[in-house]
Write a structure and sequence with these properties.
Strand content of chain A: over 45%
Shape of chain A: globular
Largest sheet of chain B: 6 strands, mixed
Helix content of chain A: under 10%
Number of strands of chain A: 11
Radius of gyration of chain B: 14 Å
Shape of chain B: globular
Distance between the termini of chain B: 41 Å
Number of helices of chain A: 0
Radius of gyration of chain A: 13 Å
Structural class of chain B: mainly beta
Oligomer: heterodimer
Number of helices of chain B: 0
Strand content of chain B: over 45%
Distance between the termini of chain A: 35 Å
Number of strands of chain B: 12
Order of helices and strands of chain A: EEEEEEEEEEE
Chain lengths: ~110, ~110
């Protein structure tokens, strides 16, 4: 199936731990994103990569570090997790053209206890 | 920076009726793209419809249509013949042409009642 797939779907962990979320797309897109959806459902962009190059880096704590080994993959590593990091994290991809809509993964619900 | 505002946090409609969701945005750009996404309880983000700002004709996709008023910076979504499966959170989004950023509104939770 052609899609944006992210793993894991659910992630429950304790404060202070380090965790990673993986994302892969087989749509041939050249741009990938991480969005955070908070408890009020607000979607906020965190990072964007175009052909492995970081092009958008919002005001995000440096505990969050994206890594793009190739244009089909964009992983998100989070160090020293805090309660406020609990959210749903969405990976998305598109062609680097404004008309092209984002294709989203199914999200990873991160719960920090 | 662009901002997108959805002034209706919640709306409800009876099955088979028509409902309109509002969206306004603020930008200094002359060319851009606008989108409506739907997020059902499954949490999946699904593209509903998109509009290119340089096109005056309003986009339509089956039961979904938009009313794009460029001068007023308004982009409302009309859902005709509402179905139970339309129950979802609906997000309006603004897409830049000069970059890759997609900015979302706060969302409108739509409930279709039987």
């Amino acid at each position: 199936d052609t899609a944006v797939s992210q793993t894991p779907k659910y992630l429950v962990t304790q404060m202070g731990n380090d965790k990673s979320i993986k994302c892969e797309q087989n749509l041939g897109h050249d741009t990938m994103y991480w969005y955070k959806q908070d408890s009020k459902k607000f979607l906020k962009i965190m990072f964007s990569y175009n052909n492995k190059e970081l092009i958008i880096n919002e005001t995000v704590p440096n505990r969050f570090s994206p890594k793009s080994p190739d244009k089909a993959h964009l992983n998100l590593h989070i160090n020293s997790l805090e309660l406020g990091d609990s959210a749903v994290y969405f990976c998305a991809s598109t062609y680097n053209r404004g008309a092209s809509p984002l294709h989203f993964g199914n999200g990873t619900r991160l719960t920090v206890t | 920076a662009q901002t997108v505002t959805q002034s209706q946090p919640e709306m409800s409609v009876q099955e088979a009726e028509t409902v309109t969701l509002s969206c306004t945005y603020d930008t200094s750009e002359s060319n851009y793209y606008l989108f409506w996404y739907k997020q059902p309880p499954s949490r999946q983000m699904i593209l509903v419809i998109r509009q290119e700002a340089y096109k005056q004709q309003n986009a339509t996709e089956n039961r979904f249509s938009v009313n794009f008023q460029k001068a007023a910076k308004s982009f409302s979504l009309k859902i005709s013949d509402s179905q139970l499966g339309d129950t979802a959170m609906y997000f309006c989004a603004f897409g830049e042409t000069s970059g890759s950023r997609l900015t979302f509104g706060e969302g409108t939770q739509l409930t279709v009642n039987p």
